[in-house]
Amino acid sequence: MELSQLRMVKAVAECGSIALAAQQLHCVPSNITTRIKQLESELGTALFTRAGRGLCISAAGQVFLGYSEQILALVDQAKRAVAPHAVPTGNLRIGAIESCATGRLPPLLAQFHKRYPQVALELVTGKSQQLLDDVKHHRLDGVLVAGRIDLPKLSRTTLYHEQLVLIASPELEPLSQLGDVHRHTVFMWPIGCPYRAALENWVAEHRLEINTVDYANWGSIIGCVSAGAGLALVPEGILQRFDGTAHLTTYRFAELAPMPNLFFWHSETGLHGPRDAFAALLTEHFAENHAPLA
């Protein structure tokens, strides 16, 4: 069964004859006759009966025509949905690391929902490795992660570079250099966080040891630091999100280079209206609100 056969059934039913249907479809009558006979053989029933010089649709044909019209309408709808300039509709599955989902994404999600109300956006959070695996296997349409990452089968665009900030309570002894972190407890996101890895790699290179406490919640981390329990390394976006609720001393050391934040999608998915609209919004926003990428 092919879409062309469904169009032929619809045309014959509307025109009442194969000759007129052939003119409408710009093909020869014999082609329509052959294709409809093949379809009737496949279905095991007649779709049309003779009525003088024309054709009349049968009872079974009337039922089949109803489904044919629905299928053809859905095909047209699908074409419009994926057309380059179509208004995005449907489902969009986005993943993000927690720092991005909490720090940078909330106003963008609100803007996206306002701009594209016909898109049902689902956001999930997780570790970078799992999110990238999910987009690789088409479980997610796109993901936002941090780090210097390049993977086969995945396309990416760099959105911005996130400044890393050490935070402490004003009651703690001031830090004069990054190496002073070994004198304090450091509250960090659990293993798998790219920002944690940046500090741990620097500490390992300089043969220092630090006492770490793992919390999988930025609010808890900042709350403990604000209470004077130690230090934390946080991305600038998280600091801005919580800055109104925590009185903190901040340190920006040159050794902690800004971390690229990227949007990944599967290279083989081609045109995807909702995802492409979301990516365009991200690019537009960060181009306007961040300094040029390093």
If you had to describe this structure to a student in words, what would you say it looks like?
By secondary structure, the protein is of the alpha/beta class. It folds into three domains: 80 residues, Arc Repressor Mutant, subunit A (Orthogonal Bundle), CATH 1.10.10.10; 101 residues, D-Maltodextrin-Binding Protein, domain 2, CATH 3.40.190; 88 residues, 3-Layer(aba) Sandwich (D-Maltodextrin-Binding Protein, domain 2). The protein has eleven helices and twelve strands. The strands form three sheets. A five-stranded mixed beta sheet has the order 4-3-5-12-6, with helices on both faces. Strands 9-8-10-7-11 form a five-stranded mixed beta sheet. A two-stranded antiparallel sheet has the order 1-2. Helix 1 packs across helix 2 and helix 2 packs across helix 3. 28% of the residues are buried.
